[in-house]
From TrEMBL:
Native species: Lacunisphaera limnophila
InterPro entries hit by this protein: Ferrochelatase (IPR001015), Ferrochelatase_AS (IPR019772), Ferrochelatase_C (IPR033644), Ferrochelatase_N (IPR033659)
Main subcellular location: cytoplasm
Enzyme category, top tier: lyase
GO process terms (BP): heme biosynthetic process
GO MF entry, a single one: metal ion binding
Family: Belongs to the ferrochelatase family.
Gene this chain is encoded by: hemH
One Pfam match: Ferrochelatase
GO terms for cellular component: cytoplasm
Residues given in the record as Fe(2+) binding sites: H191, E294
Keyword Iron: yes
Listed name of the protein: Ferrochelatase
Coiled coil, from the record: none
Amino acid sequence: MSQSAVLLLNLGSPESTSVPDVKRYLREFLGDERVIDKPAAGFLRRLLVNGIIIPFRAKKSAHAYESVWTPEGSPLVVTSRHTQTKLQARTPLPVELAMNYGNPSIPDALHRLVRQGVDRLLLFPQYPHYAMSSWETVVVKVQREAAKIAPDLKIECVQPYFADADYISALVTSARPYLAQPHDHLLFSYHGIPVRHLTKGDSSHAHCQVVPDCCTTCSPAHATCYKAQVTRTTHEFVRAAGLDPAKWSISFQSRIAGEPWIAPYTDHLFEELPKAGKKRLLVITPAFVTDCLETLEEIRVEGAEQYKEAGGQEFTHIPCLNDQPVWIDFLEQRVRAWQQTGALAFSAGDLVKTR
Ligand SMILES: C=CC1=C(C)c2cc3[nH]c(cc4nc(cc5[nH]c(cc1n2)c(C)c5CCC(=O)O)C(CCC(=O)O)=C4C)c(C)c3C=C
Ligand SMILES: [Fe+2]
Ligand SMILES: [Fe+2]
């Protein structure tokens, strides 16, 4: 008898807020060749990660984590556990959780699934959008680990759901109470990526950053274009929520210095929006399914401070979907559709490129 299961996937956090634990986490994360994509054994990469990024970043990151840490641990991991428990209560299939970096680890989750006799697995990345540095890298890691631990496991994966009507509806429903508040502007702040990753993801090399308005001009390149996908999420949200066209915009946060990242930058907008008379700001962060360091500290703490120093008056971050019932409904529907018909899932290798 076949046994199916679901594996929820996210990025992961350090074990604690201590500087050594944060260094260990950053080394694993930034050692990923799909995140810092310089040749893995190269001098340049070692210099960049171990000589520049980690020494300069670890203390600052540890301090930032301290400001959002909960008694149970990292908000990202704790909330993801709640999501797992709530989804488990809605489906007879085993539901596991794994993080790309740190714990709960992918090998541990696979071992637990194997012990339960699982032979068919649905990967559910908690990322609505494809990016080499998020969606692709976690799927590749599961495939690599499964090849060692459970070579006969049949692995399927949900498609990036950035334009899925039910996902958009969940996002709009959870944002509704905030949209009803008086505000001057809604900023869609997405995690950024280096511009280079966009062009690298376009195997035709003839669309992304080449065609004018590439992200709103239909192209097969969009299957692996993060910027086109976040643009689509935004437009679908705007249409579904009936937003005034003059009252929203897109920006990108969390960049690392060293090369151009996709623009405009969120922190620049926190300076500019008050000067343009946008004094009451709502910020939504749909690249993140779960609130984490990048939303709770970078937006809610740092961003609010920066916006107010620049003359802004009211700043509200709309919480991520987290473990809200609308999100659990979405997960449950997708799992049920997969279980019954295989719908909306496809072979895990389909969007994964050999690097
Ligand atoms: C939403 C998808 C994400 C993409 C795409 C992504 C790309 C990306 N990130 C970094 C560097 C860092 N990101 C960090 C934290 C972080 N990033 C994501 C998601 C995406 N990253 C999440 C959910 C988190 C939060 C983790 C948590 O524990 O709460 C960090 C660590 C913290 C810090 O020092 O700021 C780094 C570093 C790169 C370089 C990149 C694309 C190339
Ligand atoms: Fe990140
Ligand atoms: Fe584009």
